[in-house]
């Protein structure tokens, strides 16, 4: 593989903002971190934020708001029905995506609930580039199945392929022939693809998928939650779009889908979410469920202050100098880890830096949750909270066995406009120390296991005393350092 660099050697990414409001952080001593880890059942979701130094669990709902967003919240029209705030948000979505209809929801998984409640019948199969945890759960709970059609190269951890989130067109055609269009309620493309490292999808691929869906009368659906990063990659990695504005690229993507939905906790640096479409039939099918499950049609589970902030956040998403920040900082972190020989997913994608736990922890059986063990070990030695994206994030097979993930990843999200370069460098330094001492880390086992989405609330324990061994080595190397 060529030694490609994703940022300039003689420069580092620049924060295109200044910090005006701060929040104090605490770095607990390692003994207290171990106690917190045990109380949380070795599940970083269950850690208290007061016990976390750098929170890289997710970029969902934790991106920093701009001064314009904060100011907009003061003019919110706090009405139950017919709020002017809603119409400002609706107008902004129409301006950006050129869509007629908007269904507000309180977040992305609520949009998934509405869509799948209407479109899925028992025995249906949803085709997608790759699943996300909640997207798959909403399909299966409604009696459907998921079939993933990611290109084979998308599951290669280290490569030079610039759009690893693309759907394999031959697989798509074969699946439609085999299943029949009547059994496929929709084809879903997630831009970019969360569980394989935030990898983007090319517009060329979206066009092919869209054309095939139209040919067979199948609904094309886009999960646009991670759209901002994907837009940046479309601009810098696809020659056709190098001279296009972010707005023009957005409208190109929007025109290819019958239905788009998003979590505003990611897209727009705010809260909430929604469904947008130009298809009146689909809009009418879903709109009755909004008052039933979300709230009235002009707020849908969002507060008016959230909607005002989202309206400005969507506008800021059209600014290349705003949306390039995440990918550039992620690329920097990936390259710094690569220099140290640490296995990471390449090329750098969106959302965060992804450590390849399959290689990082290759001495641990996959059934003992390599990515989960790495996630716990990193918190122990650094106070950095990441998220397991591997076998723990899968549900069990019908026979009760673990469904072993294609990839075992530790996702270190970089929320937008939150971390400084020195904090990124600290994380790199602690990851490098952990890699040098990875042989000390052992596996995990479940002690409390929910049947669905177990990664949220499940509790685990170490298979032996490896946390104490790692802590002893830490104290040997760092002394009284936190």
Account of the 3D structure:
With 482 residues, this protein is an alpha/beta fold. The protein folds into 2 domains: 30-59 and 322-478, Aspartate Aminotransferase, domain 1 (Alpha-Beta Complex), CATH 3.90.1150; 67-319, Aspartate Aminotransferase, domain 2 (3-Layer(aba) Sandwich). The chain has helices at 30-39, 67-72, 84-97, 108-119, 133-141, 169-179, 203-216, 227-237, 246-254, 280-287, 289-293, 304-317, 320-323, 325-339, 357-360, 370-382, 421-436, 454-457, 466-478; strands spanning 54-55, 101-105, 125-128, 145-148, 186-190, 219-223, 259-263, 273-277, 352-356, 384-385, 387-389, 409-413, 444-448, 459-462. The strands form 4 sheets. The chain has a 7-stranded mixed beta sheet with strand order 2-8-7-6-5-3-4, sandwiched between helices. Helix 6 (169-179) packs parallel to helix 7 (203-216) and helix 14 packs parallel to helix 17.
Structural class: alpha/beta
Strand-residue fraction? 5-15%
Helix content: 25-40%
Q: Can you name the CATH architecture of the largest domain?
A: 3-Layer(aba) Sandwich
The strand count comes to 14
Describe the largest sheet: 7 strands, mixed
Mean pLDDT: 95
């Amino acid at each position: 593989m060529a030694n490609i660099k994703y940022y300039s050697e003689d420069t580092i990414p620049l924060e295109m903002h200044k910090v005006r409001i701060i929040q104090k952080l605490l770095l607990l001593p390692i003994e207290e971190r171990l106690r917190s880890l045990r109380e949380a059942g070795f599940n970083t979701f269950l850690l208290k934020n007061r016990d976390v130094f750098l929170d890289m669990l997710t970029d969902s709902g934790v991106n920093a708001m701009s001064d314009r967003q904060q100011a907009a919240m003061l003019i919110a029209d706090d009405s139950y029905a017919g709020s002017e705030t809603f119409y400002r948000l609706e107008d902004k979505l129409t301006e950006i995506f050129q869509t007629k209809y908007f269904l507000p929801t309180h977040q992305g998984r609520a949009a998934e609930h509405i869509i799948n409640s209407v479109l899925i019948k028992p025995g249906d199969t949803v085709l997608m580039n790759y699943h996300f945890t909640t997207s798959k759960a909403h399909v299966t709970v409604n009696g459907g199945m998921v079939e993933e059609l990611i290109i084979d190269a998308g599951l290669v951890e280290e490569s030079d392929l610039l759009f690893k989130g693309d759907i394999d067109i031959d697989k798509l055609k074969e699946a439609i022939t085999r299943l029949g269009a009547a059994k496929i309620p929709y084809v879903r493309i997630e831009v970019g693809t969360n569980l394989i490292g935030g990898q983007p999808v090319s517009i060329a691929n979206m066009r092919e998928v869209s054309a095939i869906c139209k040919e067979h009368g199948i609904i094309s659906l886009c999960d646009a939650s991670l759209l901002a990063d994907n837009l940046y990659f479309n601009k810098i990695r696809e020659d056709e779009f190098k001279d296009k504005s972010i707005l023009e690229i957005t409208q190109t993507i929007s025109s290819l889908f019958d239905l788009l939905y998003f979590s505003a906790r990611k897209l727009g640096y705010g809260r909430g979410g929604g469904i947008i479409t130009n298809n009146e039939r689909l809009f009418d099918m879903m709109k009755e469920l909004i008052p039933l499950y979300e709230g009235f049609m002009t707020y849908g589970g969002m507060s008016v202050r959230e909607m005002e902030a989202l309206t400005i956040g969507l506008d800021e998403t059209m600014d290349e100098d705003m949306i390039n920040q995440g990918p550039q900082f992620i690329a920097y972190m990936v390259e710094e880890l690569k220099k140290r020989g640490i296995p990471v997913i390449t090329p750098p994608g969106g959302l965060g830096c992804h450590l390849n736990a399959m290689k990082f922890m290759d001495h641990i059986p996959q059934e003992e949750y390599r990515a989960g063990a790495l996630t716990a070990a990193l918190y122990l030695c650094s106070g950095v909270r990441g998220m397991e994206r591997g076998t723990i994030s899968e549900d069990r097979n019908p026979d009760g066995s673990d469904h072993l993930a294609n990839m075992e990843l530790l996702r270190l999200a970089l929320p937008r406009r939150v971390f400084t370069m020195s904090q990124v460098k600290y994380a790199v330094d602690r990851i490098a120390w952990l890699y040098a001492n990875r042989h000390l880390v052992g596996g995990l086992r479940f002690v409390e296991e929910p049947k669905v989405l177990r990664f949220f609330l499940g509790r685990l324990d170490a298979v032996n005393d490896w946390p104490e061994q790692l802590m002893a080595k830490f104290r040997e190397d760092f002394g009284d350092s936190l």
